[in-house]
Amino acid sequence: MRATDLFVNEGYNCAEAVLGGIVGCVDGCNHLASGFGGGIGGRGDICGAASGAIMALGAEANIRAHPDRTKGELQSMVMEFLRSFEHDCGALDCRDLIPLDEMFDIESDRRDYFASPDRKQRCAEFVDRAQTLAETLLQEQGWASS
User: Fold this and answer.
1) Is the N or C terminus of the chain more exposed, i.e. has fewer CB atoms within 10 Å?
2) Distance (Å, rounded) from C-alpha 64 to C-alpha 4?
3) What is the pTM of this model?
4) What is the 3-state secondary structure (H, E, C) of 12-40?
């Protein structure tokens, strides 16, 4: 399942879409990511797509059910994901990926931008990249569920 379809066509936010796209828990567990869209509650902090991917890495690692997998291995995978995402996308924080503070003076303009097709298309690129990077890391580690 592609996270971009969930994000662009199904109304899920960036974090929900990436978590659901990787783990396949649409309308199941992806609600856990709802507050992470827009850089954690719309604050512009770490990109919601990246947050969703990190949640998916943890869910897929499932280290409690797999004693052969360690927290250290998961943390290394998360660090590699963050390095790759930042390298490929140019930043980790939503406010740097979509420079809201530079673009808008008033909150209503910011809300309008979050609802715009331009923002949706730009964020769809980050959603796609986050899913691709996380799935690649899971496959390389041998932890992919599918």
Assistant:
1) C
2) 30
3) 0.89
4) CCHHHHHHHHHHCCCCCCHHHHHHHCCCC
